């Protein structure tokens, strides 16, 4: 019976229902705030990040398709060059019989320039693919880093008091100064 009366007496100390006030208990409010912020980030950020990655994937696939088309064009040119080569070789045999060795030199120069051109096209295609892949990776990394940094800053700002905040800023400035001295 004493527990019942104690609980009724303690009810008199509670504010009236429907009143507004601030909960200053940090341990009670931070997990709630963090769960709300994390939930909102997951709910809204997942679609944005997914769209960014899908768009980037499409651009990379388009670049790869374009490179494949260039490759197919290069293969067609190679086949044409081979056909021309066979034709030139037959003509060269006729001229060689007749003693025209200069035609043979022209043929070899033309073949070499064709192969160099094809090699250059293949190298350009590979470099383009590699560049686009690296650019896509860097953009995704940068987006993820920015989102993580924004989340961390939001969490830090909600958890830090002014004195702790100033100490962290000073420590980071000192760290950046040390890193600058290392690079200089």
TrEMBL record:
Residues 64-98 form a coiled coil. The chain crosses the membrane at residues 32-49. GO terms for molecular function: proton-transporting ATP synthase activity, rotational mechanism. GO terms for cellular component: chloroplast thylakoid membrane; proton-transporting ATP synthase complex. Pfam families: ATP-synt_B. Its main location: membrane. It is a single-pass membrane protein. It is found in: Membrane; Plastid, Chloroplast thylakoid membrane. InterPro entries: ATP_synth_b/b'su_bac/chlpt (IPR002146). Keywords: ATP synthesis, CF(0), Chloroplast, Coiled coil, Hydrogen ion transport, Ion transport, Membrane, Plastid, Thylakoid, Transmembrane, Transmembrane helix, Transport. In plastids the F-type ATPase is also known as CF(1)CF(0). Component of the F(0) channel, it forms part of the peripheral stalk, linking F(1) to F(0). F(1)F(0) ATP synthase produces ATP from ADP in the presence of a proton or sodium gradient. F-type ATPases consist of two structural domains, F(1) containing the extramembraneous catalytic core and F(0) containing the membrane proton channel, linked together by a central stalk and a peripheral stalk. During catalysis, ATP synthesis in the catalytic domain of F(1) is coupled via a rotary mechanism of the central stalk subunits to proton translocation. HAMAP family: ATP_synth_b_bprime (MF_01398). F-type ATPases have 2 components, F(1) - the catalytic core - and F(0) - the membrane proton channel. F(1) has five subunits: alpha(3), beta(3), gamma(1), delta(1), epsilon(1). F(0) has four main subunits: a(1), b(1), b'(1) and c(10-14). The alpha and beta chains form an alternating ring which encloses part of the gamma chain. F(1) is attached to F(0) by a central stalk formed by the gamma and epsilon chains, while a peripheral stalk is formed by the delta, b and b' chains. Belongs to the ATPase B chain family. This is ATP synthase subunit b, chloroplastic. It comes from Oroxylum indicum (Midnight horror). The gene is atpF.
């Amino acid at each position: 019976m004493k527990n019942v009366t104690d609980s009724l007496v303690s009810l008199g100390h509670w504010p009236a229902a429907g009143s507004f006030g601030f909960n200053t208990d940090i341990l009670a409010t931070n997990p709630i705030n963090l769960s709300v912020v994390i939930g909102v980030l997951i709910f809204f950020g997942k679609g944005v990040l997914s769209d960014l990655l899908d768009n980037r994937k499409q651009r990379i696939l388009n670049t790869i398709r374009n490179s494949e088309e260039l490759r197919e064009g290069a293969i067609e040119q190679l086949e044409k060059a081979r056909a021309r080569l066979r034709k030139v070789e037959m003509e060269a045999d006729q001229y060689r019989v007749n003693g025209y060795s200069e035609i043979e030199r022209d043929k070899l120069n033309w073949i070499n320039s064709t192969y160099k051109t094809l090699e250059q096209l293949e190298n350009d295609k590979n470099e383009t693919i590699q560049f686009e892949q690296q650019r896509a990776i860097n953009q995704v990394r940068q987006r993820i880093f920015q989102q993580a940094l924004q989340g961390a800053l939001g969490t830090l700002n909600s958890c830090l008091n002014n004195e702790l905040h100033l100490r962290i800023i000073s420590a980071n400035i000192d760290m950046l100064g040390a890193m600058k001295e290392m690079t200089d």
